[in-house]
Specification:
- It contains eight helices and nine strands.
- With 230 residues, the chain is an alpha/beta fold.
- Helix 3 (84-89) links the parallel strand 3 and strand 4.
- Helix 2 packs across helix 8.
Amino acid sequence: MAKLTKKRKEALAKFEPGKPYPLAEAAKLVKEITYTNFDASVDIDVRLGVDPRKSNQMVRGVVTLPHGTGKETKVLVLCTPDKEEEAKAAGADYVGLDEYIEKIKGGWLDFDVVITMPQVMSKVGQLGRILGPRGLMPNPKSGTVTMEVGKAVKEVKQGKIDFKVDKYGIVHASIGKVSFKPEQIVENAQEFISTIQKLKPAAAKGTYIKSIYLSSTMSPGIKVDPKAID
């Protein structure tokens, strides 16, 4: 572990923890202070001035990142036979219904997003206990329960992500990879933050965006100045 600690010390020496940086500078720094030997994800944490226990202060939504997430998203489509070709043509990784429901009940979870259609939700509903806690349950609000399965698959493959505030009032998402150019990280972060701003609940009082941090899989968090997002 000593080697890791040395690398972490070097990373910490490159910036001032707790000091707010303009987004463009934070995006450059996160690349400089990541010391993994794999292409780490770049994550954003936005702390909101909401009380997520109150339904009228719940913040959840979807955003299509201009540069995608850099991650290969595996999509499972649970649909009726007449929709299978449409889903496959759009690039779905797995397409079917009953056999996949049984596989999931047996513990198979090799996918990142599930897309389904209203007609089969009664069957998909059986998986609520398995998919719900993992954030994988399809939901009409996030566009994953739809008749337009092909369109939904394409959007997910192009970098559409859904997010929701956790019980601590924080929205967390992966918005790219360390291999991205700084400006790609900036543009993805701007799109994400502006989407959150549009979703501000009327019931939320006081400062809405309290803090923003940018980090990678293994790096310390860099504080971003909310006033210097542009």
